[in-house]
Structures are given as structure tokens and as C-alpha cells.
Amino acid sequence: MAKKGKKYQEALSKFDKNNYYNATEALGVVVEVASAKFDETVEAHIKLGVDSRHADQQVRGAVVLPNGTGKTNRVLVFAKGEKAKEAEAAGADFVGAEDLVTKIQSENWFDFDVIVATPDMMGLVGRLGRVLGPKGLMPNPKSGTVTFEVEKAINEIKAGKVEYRLDKTNIIHVPVGKVSFGKEKLAENFHALMEAVVKAKPSAAKGQYLRSVVVTSTMGPGVKINPARVND
User: Fold this and answer.
1) pLDDT digits (tens, 9 = 90+) for 46-55
2) Residue 196, phi then psi, degrees to nearest 5
3) What is the mean pLDDT of residues 213-222?
4) How far apart are CA 15 and CA 31, in angstroms?
5) Among the listed residues 203, 202, 175, the one whose alpha carbon sits nearest the alpha carbon of residue 189
6) CA-CA distance, 101 to 107, in Å (whole number)?
7) Taking a C-beta distance cutoff of 8 angstroms, is the pair 122, 23 a contact?
8) Which residue has the higher pLDDT, 28 or 9?
9) How confident is the model at residue 1 (pLDDT cuts 50, 70, 90)?
10) Is residue 4 over pLDDT 90?
11) What is the mean pLDDT of residues 153-168?
């Protein structure tokens, strides 16, 4: 096992790593022990009592965090005609069709964070499935990134919309802001995320839904949240 650094060990000494906190307390600890020279991202890691191997137990969606993420996402939009003009007017960073597909394929170009596509463009975008899928960049109707409401989608993404979905180990990993936000704003974002995740519980899921919840900063240790106190 890799040896933890001095700052990490110092952070661990400031709280009880075996204790389960309520959400606001836990985020307060994350902010308090953060020691990096940059503004660390705060993330939530949520293990669910579902089995992602089954289609009827998938958990995926998106939510607009009330205080944003602290990051301005670069948005690429696949659209044509009036929808392309709408995307440009709404502040999309890149707008195109076949030209962007070629650029991604031939130049291995990924200078963007989120892709929005109108439904009629998905046949074209599908050609990029093998490269976009592993990076989590493939547009999806469940996350609101396959839509004719291009302006709305761009505005939400720029305002702090984040996507959540299960990984292969049934865990969701989502950023909820920056350390500089402070615990109150981070808690507001966290509660918005948890409300969305709880609402997305599949009907096929049995037993305890929220198995474990941990919050952490980029360079800091994980702080456990009592799954029964995620709203506190």
C-alpha cells in the first residue's frame, strides 16, 4: 500500500475517520482539512444497493447544482440549421456536425467537457461511440444532452449541471463544488444531488438503497456520512 503524504496524515489527525457525520458536518470537515495550494474540488461518492448489470437497476440522470460547480464547462453542440444558430447564440463553445466528427476522429481532439446533440444528429454522433463512451462524453436523453431544447441545455450546463451515473461497482462519483464555497454552499449542492439520486431509485431495487456516502476533496481524505442523515 502506498504511503500517505505528510499533509494527508495531518488531515486525518483532525477528525475521526471512523465516525459517521451528518452531511453539513462532513462537508465542514472536508473544508477544514483541505490543505492544497489550489482550490480543491469536493466530490461525493455514493454506493447504492443496486446491481448495475441489470438494465432495470440503472441509476442515471442530471441535476443543476444551486451554487454551480466552480468550473465553467466547455460545451460542444452537434446541430444543423436553426438549432446550430440557437446553440451559438446560447454560448456554446463549439458548434458543428460532420466537421467536428472528423476533427475528433482524425485529431483525437477533446477540448470540451460536455456534448449536446439534437436527436436528428445522433446517427452521426453514434460514429464516435467508441471514443466518447469510455470518456463519459456520449450524449444521453436521460441526462438532457440529447434534445431539441438546445438553449435550455446549454444554459443548465453553464449554470452547474452535473451528470450522475453508476460505475461498474455500483458507485456514483460526482463533484459538488470547490473548497472555497464553504460548507453551507457545498451542503446546498450536496442536498440537491442526493434528492435527485434518491428520486432516481429504481423500482427493482430491494433492501437498503444508500449503502455508503463519502465526501472528499481532491487531495484530502474521505469523510463518512451517515446514509440516514444525508439531508442534515
Assistant:
1) 999 999 889 9
2) -65, -45
3) 95
4) 12
5) 175
6) 10
7) no
8) 28
9) very low
10) no
11) 93
**Starting at the edge strand that comes first in sequence, how are the strands of the sheet with 94-96 ordered?**
94-96, 75-78, 114-117
Residue 3's pLDDT band (cuts 50, 70, 90): low
Structural domains of the chain in order of their starting residue, each with its CATH number = 6-68+161-229 (3.30.190.20), 75-158 (3.40.50.790)
From the list 4, 9, 33, the residue with the least C-alpha distance to 217 is: 33
* 3-state SS, one letter per residue, for the chain: CCCCCHHHHHHHCCCCCCCCECHHHHHHHHHHHCCCCCCCEEEEEEEECCCCCCHHHCCEEEEECCCCCCCCCCEEEECCHHHHHHHHHCCCCEEECHHHHHHHHHHCCCCCCEEEECHHHHHHHHHHHHHHCCCCCCCCHHHCCECCCHHHHHHHHHHCEEEEEECCCCEEEEEEEEHHHHHHHHHHHHHHHHHHHHHCCCCCCCCCCEEEEEEEECCCCCEEECHHHCCC
> Cell numbers of 230, please?
444525508
- Of 87, 147, 160, 75, nearest to 118 by C-alpha is 147
Residue type at position 39: D
Cα–Cα dist 63/119, whole Å:
21
State the pLDDT at residue 6. 81
- Is residue 2 very low, low, confident or very high in pLDDT (cuts 50, 70, 90)? low
Write out the three cell numbers for 157.
450546463
The cell numbers describing 68, all together, are 454551480
7 versus 212: the higher-pLDDT residue is 212
Contact 146, 119 (CB under 8 A): yes
d(CA 76, CA 87): 9
